[in-house]
């Protein structure tokens, strides 16, 4: 009897263990899908980053050659559509070639902190209809196929900051909303049809001149970031915005002159001209802006504070739209100037 009970317990234990093992194997299989088999994609690593949507990320940060990358993506996968590609801290790849990704598609591409120099023409052609975000930053990138942007039908965010791009990129896109070209030695920018562009970041470039029309006919543009450049003058017709609340940042340039009509369409937002070389806040330029409730940051400029500033100092409404730290060449704050003095001598 004891022997029979022992045999029964052993059988039940075996069934339990086998069942558990089967469940565990099944769970492991579910966790792997929809990723390709790990042994087929090494050294890339595939991860399901959202179990509700089965979004999958391919991290190929450890790839050492383009041929290795192309070999991996030439294989047959259970699914060809990936949410994202990640290559970071990779100092072996210097080029992304046409064909490196085969027919695989991505919604996001993140290539950051490495030695990449070139994104070849048509390198992302399999993702023309799927890519929403391209992020290639903190590399040595000096060539990117800007002429292909209009082929990406869903692309909303282009981040190419802190690279070695040069010249004057020409951009056309019916879908782009955000453009980041900060910390590149570009000397200009040409913005064609960009109806959804909302933010553009151009800080710390080699731009010293903005031709009239640079920021016009952009119906959705809200934010222009141009700090830390070498701008000396702003000509009439340079910026003409159409949104109802917008912001223009021109801090830390060498601006000595802003022409009447250079800043049109700003409403209810901020204009930042701190740390330039402006000697006056010309009434013809700044009064229309303040009439549209634009707040002006002007500290760090050598303002003369003569009668040319009387229009501002004698109006509480306008003074409430000027930052408290704006000061004259004498060091006196504009906010401390006596309006009565200007009423008498001006």
Question: What key attributes describe this structure?
Answer:
346 residues, alpha/beta, Leucine-rich repeat, LRR (right-handed beta-alpha superhelix), 12-stranded mixed beta sheet, two-stranded parallel ribbon, 7 helices, 20% strand, disordered N terminus
Give a written overview of the molecule.
The chain is of the alpha/beta class and 346 residues long. It has a single domain (35-300), classed as Ribonuclease Inhibitor (Leucine-rich repeat, LRR (right-handed beta-alpha superhelix)), CATH 3.80.10. Helix content is 19%, strand content 20%. It contains 7 helices and 20 strands. The protein has helices at 2-32, 38-41, 66-73, 283-291, 310-313, 316-319, 339-345, and strands at 45-50, 55-59, 81-88, 95-96, 105-112, 118-119, 133-137, 157-159, 170-171, 178-180, 190-191, 199-201, 223-225, 233-234, 239-240, 247-249, 257-258, 263-264, 270-272, 295-297. Residues 1-22 form the signal peptide. InterPro entries: Leu-rich_rpt, Leu-rich_rpt_typical-subtyp, LRR_dom_sf. This is Oplophorus-luciferin 2-monooxygenase non-catalytic subunit.
């Amino acid at each position: 009897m004891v022997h029979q009970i022992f045999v029964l317990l052993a059988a039940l234990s075996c069934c339990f263990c086998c069942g558990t093992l089967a469940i565990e194997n099944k769970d492991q299989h579910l966790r792997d899908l929809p990723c390709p088999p790990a042994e087929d994609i090494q050294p890339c690593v595939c991860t399901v980053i959202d179990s509700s949507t089965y979004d999958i990320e391919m991290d190929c940060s450890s790839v050492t050659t383009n041929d290795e990358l192309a070999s991996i993506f030439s294989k047959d996968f259970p699914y060809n559509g990936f949410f994202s590609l990640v290559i970071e801290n990779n100092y072996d790849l210097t080029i992304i070639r046409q064909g490196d990704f085969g027919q695989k598609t991505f919604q996001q591409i993140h290539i950051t902190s490495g030695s990449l120099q070139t994104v070849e023409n048509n390198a992302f052609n399999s993702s023309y209809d799927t890519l929403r975000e391209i992020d290639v930053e903190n590399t040595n990138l000096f060539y990117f196929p800007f002429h292909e942007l209009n082929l990406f039908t869903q692309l909303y965010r282009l981040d190419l900051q802190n690279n070695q791009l040069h010249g004057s990129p020409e951009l056309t896109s019916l879908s782009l909303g955000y453009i980041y070209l900060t910390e590149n030695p570009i000397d200009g920018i040409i913005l064609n049809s960009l109806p959804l562009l909302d933010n553009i970041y151009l800080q710390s470039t080699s731009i010293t001149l903005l031709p009239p029309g640079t920021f016009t006919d952009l119906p959705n543009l809200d934010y222009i970031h141009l700090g830390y450049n070498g701008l000396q003058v702003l000509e009439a017709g340079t910026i003409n915005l159409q949104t109802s609340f917008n912001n223009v940042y021109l801090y830390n340039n060498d601006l000595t002159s802003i022409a009447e009509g250079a800043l049109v369409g700003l409403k209810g937002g901020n204009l930042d001209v701190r740390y330039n070389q402006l000697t006056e806040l010309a009434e013809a330029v700044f009064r229309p802006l303040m009439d549209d409730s634009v707040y002006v940051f002007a500290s760090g400029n050598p303002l003369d504070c003569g009668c040319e500033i009387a229009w501002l100092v004698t109006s509480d409404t306008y003074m409430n739209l000027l930052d408290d730290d704006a000061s004259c060449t004498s060091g006196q704050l504009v906010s401390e100037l006596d309006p009565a003095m200007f009423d008498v001598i001006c």
